Amino acid sequence: MKKILIIINGFQLFHNDLNYAIHLAKTEKAVLHGLFVHNLKLQEVEGYAFPSDINLTDTNFSIESEREELVKLQSAQVKLFEDICSSGGVSFKSQLIHENFLDALIYNSAFADLVIINAEVDTTYYSLNSLLTNLYCPVLLLSKEVGIFDKIIIAYDGHSSSIHAMRQFAYLFTSWHHLPVYLVSVLPQNIREIEYKEQVQEWLSLQFPDAHINVLKGDVKEELPLFISLNQDAIVVMGAFGRSSLSRFFKESLANVVLAKAKTALFITHT
């Protein structure tokens, strides 16, 4: 049985993300493990210049009472997660993370097959770039209001990273091999064919019966998002060669461009 992690930051539990995760877990017969990240270490009257003045008001304020309210809110959020998973018919697990956020998330990824993250939520407790660079398993980045995918787009550049990504996706999501697959490569004007064309065609035919190779010309940051936006409700498969390259990949913002322009789900691996 596979294991899928979904990271929930603070109180930002988006029903669309959870429905997406439940759909994947149910189809692949996977356990859905919710990681709830929240800092309960409050500072006394944070942001108030004259904390002693609180004693002069009628407000019964204390760090402990506020912490208790946060615990109640988080407990309610966890229960909502568990209720939705239960009604969706998937196996689930809940885990609270209150400290060492980045290390805890990375550690959990070592024992998972996929991590689901909303790319647009607040990540106050850790650096999203650091997390993506150090995770031990593939990542599924979601933009807000992304629909359940009914087609697959593989971004292929001939490098081993993109080959690794499409192989990982095929082996992880065995229930989706019947969907239409578009292998997209953006090439310079003077190059006509993708690298390893014969081998790629053979591999695609063995994995996906409805596969197509699309060669585009121009700037990858323009052409790839445009192709994706014309094929709504697709999941996009990308690779990054090594952890340092994955870090550069996000700093160069190709993933952000794709997510912003196409409103899609982005499956990413690094070797």
Automatic annotation (TrEMBL):
It holds the Pfam family Usp. Residues 149-268 form the UspA domain. InterPro entries: UspA. It comes from the Bacteria. This is Universal stress protein. It comes from Paraflavisolibacter caeni.
